Amino acid sequence: xxxxxxxxxxxxxxxxxxxxSAPAPGGGAAAGLxxxxxxxxxxxxxxxxxxxxxxxxFHDKANEYLSVFNMARSIFLDLMDEDAANFLELMKTLREIxxxxxxxxxxxxxxxxxxxxxxxxxxxxxxxELLPCFTDLLFHGNKNVISDTxxxxxxAIACIHASIINVKINMKYIDDEFYExxxxxxxxxxxxAVSAIDAVLTYQVDP
Length: 207
Description:
The chain is mainly alpha-helical.
């Protein structure tokens, strides 16, 4: 795998690595890229809204969101690298603990999987907290680029769904009832956030 941070690679370089037999980048990095793309598209909508006199009442909010989305885009790009590093560390840990006593092996395994979960968890949480900004853009952003606003929101939702899947798959290897209960409550929060913007998207897109 190319050792350059993902943000420094060309699109082809990243996709070549993603499509290779290397263990990372994988689904976690792909989810992070969805998040970064969602934010970048939202930034474009903010620029075109703030520059249009017909949306003067929303200029201040558009500029505020522009800063928020730009910062979030950078966070998602960094999380792509962190996810790949955590997965490689997980694979290394699983190899190293094979000869350990069962109790010690299980504890180290659970800790490693929890660390692997931490990045997709942060992706889903970050994007869930951003969904109200995407929703506000759907209602008040420049209507000339509504298709881009919708695509940004759809990419944001896809980022959350992909991150939830990554969390749930890794949770299968953790036997911790308290942790599982806590995560189920978190899943509901994320899914409720997605349901709220889904309703807005249906209103915006359906004739």
